[in-house]
Amino acid sequence: MVSGNTDGSQMGNSCEEETYILRVHKKEPTLVQPAIETKNGLYYLSNLDQNIAVTVQTIYCFKSQDRSNEQVFDTLRESLSKVLVDFYPLACRLTISTEGKLIVDCTGEGAVFVEAEAECNLGTIGDITKPDPSMLGTLVYNIPGAKNILEIPPLVAQVTKFKCGGFVLGLAMNHCMFDGIGAMEFVNSWAETARGKTRLIPPFSDRTILKPRDPLSVNFPHNEFTELDDLSNSSTNLYQEEALLYQSFHFSQERLNDIKTVAMQDGTLEKCTTFEALAAFVWRARSDALGFDQNQRTKLLFAVDGRSRLKPPLPKQYFGNGIVLTNSICKVSELLRNPLSYAVGLVQQAIKMVTDDYIRSAVDYFEMTRLRPSLASTLLITTWSRLDFHSTDFGWGEPLQSGPVTLPEKEVTLFLSNGKEKKSVNVLLGLPSSAMERFKELMEI
Fold it and tell me: Is 74 in the active site?
């Protein structure tokens, strides 16, 4: 790891004709260990953790306050050390168990922590709801030479000071450690610790409560793992021939209500939630924009929170993935020629399918097959719109803005809240340039 690393990337500013270069000087990474000795040995990861072992990068932007940012490095490092006592697996390393599955080796060697300084003011990074991954990527630390997730610690934190007094916390965390709810629980616990507060209820760390059944029992078809035949070579070629563009689309409460009205207008549906309507709407538009063959089967994948659906429910402070992927598959011709209510109905069926028995069947299915969900001809929707990113306060107030640096796979679309507006949604996705133009047109309909 080289000291004094400088990363540069270009960013266009829509208000001016200039092009900015975001230069970030990074010091040599250090390791932050738990404040006291924690458990060692191997820490079990459930089969729900195994399915989504990807690194998720997010940033939190804090403006200058009366409190000096001179203290920010020490404050965040010291509070991280304290919070890692309860969240000790984050200070460890991933390895492969004798069963050939991911497991945590509790070495306690520490989370990676990087101090950095930018040569500009915080305002230079602009609106992160319209992300430039090459630019925002300078605000998180990537382990040099890492070839796979086993070589990347579960938690990597970079704190970047800006000339104006503001700073950015950039996090790279492995999804196998927790889902969005668990991640926010950790980040907010860290923030409260930085403010001198102590959470009274520690995380529930025993993931063996989601062990496979004995004997294994697969009672459902788990089509989330099904590999769909690719009849749409044109759409595949688009990703190879054209630049991948990222765009965020804002859906106001009024616009979301309009989509729900369209979904309900033929009388097919008794009711319809915002998520169901928006997921169906985006699934249809993306399939159209990518020019899928009409006979192509397309899959919609999305996560359902299984915490309350399990019997008994997972403990409230469960530290791990409590979500399960559900799915719907249909021909593109059926998706596009039928009214929106048809696609909404498919989404509703996929949600209704998720019961205690379905979740445990999915756990057992993975144990039998060791398959990962296939993303061929698939849209994978991840919903962050209900996660409270915007209340995270390390002592410098709530973040000006926060969100993802990029999307982990080209098939992933994120539903995000629009700042503190809980009833509106930003839809973030990446598409080849020509498909993005078509998708923009469909968003205006």
Answer: no
Token representation of residue 269: 């549906």
* Distance in angstroms (rounded) separating the CA atoms of residues 112 and 271: 47
384-440 confidence digits (pLDDT tens): 987 877 789 999 999 999 999 999 899 999 999 876 667 899 999 999 999 999 999
Q: Which residues of 338-355 are buried (b: 16+ CB within 10 A; e: fewer)?
A: bebbbbbbbbbebeeebe
- Residue-level pLDDT at 4: 35
Which candidate in 49, 86, 175, 364 is catalytic?
175
pLDDT of residue 312: 96
Catalytic residue of the set 293, 305, 388, 393 = 393
Give the contacts of 371 (CB within 8 A, at least 6 positions apart).
225, 365
Please measure the distance between the N-terminal and C-terminal CA atoms of the chain and give it in whole angstroms.
50
Task: Give the length of the chain.
Answer: 445
Which tokens sit at 195? 């403010």
- Active site includes 25? no
DSSP annotation of 222: -
Rounded to two decimals, the pTM is: 0.91
For 368, other C-beta atoms within 10 Å of its C-beta total 11
Cis, bond preceding 312 (omega within 30 deg of 0): yes
CA gap 424, 428 in Å, rounded: 13
Residues 6+ apart with CB under 8 A from 399: 60, 61, 62, 389, 390, 392
